[in-house]
Amino acid sequence: MRPVLPSLTTTISLPISYFLFLTALLISIVKASPPVGTLHYREHFYVGAHYVSQPDASASADVPLLADGQIYVEHLTPASGASKEHPLLFVHGAGMTATNFLNTPDGRMGWADWFLGQGYEVYLVDQAARGRSPWLQQVDGPQTSFSTQTVESLFTAPERFALWPNASLHTQWPGVNGSVGDPIFDSFFASMVPLLSTDVESGMKNQDALVALLDRIGAVHLLTHSQAGLFGWSLADARPHLIKSLTALEPGGPPFSGDVLSPTVPSRSWGLTDIPLNYDPPLPNNSPDALNKDKIVTNDPARDGYTCYAQSPPARTLPSLKNIPIVVVTSETSWHGVSDGCIVEYLKGVGAERVQFVRLQDHGFHGNGHMFFMEKNSLEIVASVVGPWIADVDRERTARRERLVVAKVDDP
């Protein structure tokens, strides 16, 4: 005898307690799930590639070619559509990738997601020859990597090493102690990648690729961190009309010399960068040797006697930076607290009329270090400091356009 299957109209009775159990289970799952962030569309592409001959190829009419210099670009768009006129472009620092801004090492929402929620399109890149941007062994220069001790002492647990003033005040890194064996540290360190050994090669490759990116996508709000701060100055110098604002989170520096960790080591021969900038008057033979330098010692207690360098008067200017809104953001406990002020003073000296300097402790944020955009209070910082500054730039630009329209209407 064949079994009889229930028809579509068959009613199956279950006790109400079963449905109550399912409802409670679903609620508990939702509560236990991490925040999903902002719903968005995602695409990726590569830009900046050029073909080079394979160095070890035999001489022939058909020389094998390689693609070099390209960078990986991730493009995120709010699912509801972008409400802001210009997107944000994030460029990460040394030894890291674009994942820095997607979420924090302990799984919280990152800054990219926060800006998506404010209606911005977001672009994130992996630096040239880094991460998902290919490093070619036959073409590119040698690489280096950060050790666990370097990461602990500079980024995640500087309070244990006290290599500079205020390091002992660091408290905001998530996790147990910011050291090997702490799951949050281990997760962060696992994301570190090799980087090019020389700042000159990094500067040139990233300059070329980032210029190609801006030429493709148009004007942006640029946000850089650490090593990428140098790329920000050179990119603004090359494409000033495409930089609507520049947010430099503890940019690489200071001008002409090493930071507090190596203050006597010459560096950044072009002042802000290791690669050429368009000074006015132009430098003879396009050589930075013509940039005359003066030592500047200030009474700023945050400097702890640190010596800055500036140009001897009359200083050459960087006309491309004159009208770009720039903010340098520095944490309370990072080594950058000693020397970032030197960068701001140099920017003013070369004619950057709209530069501002923000120390997070002056806005009530204490205990933060060099990686403050992924520390415990990262979302409070972006919501209270960085996000509003960029929004103010947009409002000011809109108001200026409206004044120009009114002026044209009133002009007989």
TrEMBL record:
Alphabetized SUPFAM superfamilies for the sequence: alpha/beta-Hydrolases
PANTHER family linked: AB HYDROLASE-1 DOMAIN-CONTAINING PROTEIN, HYDROLASE ALPHA/BETA FOLD FAMILY
CDD domains linked: Esterase_713_like-2
Signal peptide: 1-32
Keyword annotations from UniProtKB, A to Z: Signal
InterPro entries for the chain: AB_hydrolase_fold, Carboxylesterase_BioH
Name of the featured protein: Uncharacterized protein
